[in-house]
Fold:
Amino acid sequence: MSVKQLEKTSPWELHLTALENQSLEAMRLINELRVRDSLKTQFLSNISHDLRTPLTAIVTHAEILRDGMLGEVNEQQRRSIDGIIAGGRQVLNMVNEILTYAKGSANQFDLVISEFSLEDLMEQIRILNTSLLARKNLEFRSSVEGAVPLLRADRQKIAHILGNLLGNAIAFTPAGGRIWVNGRMALHDERPELVIEVGDTGVGIAPEHHDLIFREFAQVDASPSRTHHGTGLGLTIARQLVEVHGGRIWLESAPGRGSRFFFSLPSSYLAV
Structure:
């Protein structure tokens, strides 16, 4: 725009032009961020796939050594091999969490619907966590209140949600504490839904952190000296898997009063 044109242009027109330029720049930045986010998600997915194969091989070969398939090992060697297996499985679990998160971020979750019992699923999760519960001498109870229909949902993904919430409860509940899981039918906006609760008598979470813990890579204690380590994705993945079913996830907690995590499934995922 020339000097003469500027002189003839009103302040209002100049202001509109500036706003249009700002809007175009904002759109450019938004598109750039979307591209970067997509590249980040693809990178996480690729690197998770590439890491999972050698990690699985390390754990498998360590198990072969431990089981004496290549010759007898003494007790000291066995303890060392057990350490390799435990560490390998821990890293492999973290890689699997990153891969699951990447799929959710890329909207690549496909629901595989099957019919199953909530009570059976709770028992499965209890069995998988028996050793962790026993190690901290934690009391565990599960229950279903009233008549809850069979579920017609993605069993693996619901199990993943329960597993992440229960693992979180075990990690943050001191030895000798209590953990419970229960399910019940409830109404939300006058519509029936299944509500599943995972509660504990652990350290609790301050109200100002309730939204934070469901965010990607977020941890209330992110310091290098923190007691509990991990990707910070467990609750984010739980939220993603709940939301892909059209449900909600929330918690009730306060420091020193334990935590109660809840998630819901709409009645469309119940065999009624």
Summary: The chain is about 50% helix and 15% strand. Residues 222-226 have pLDDT under 50 and may be disordered. The helical segments are 3-8, 11-66, 75-105, 118-128, 130-135, 155-171, 234-244. The first helix runs from residue 3 to 8.
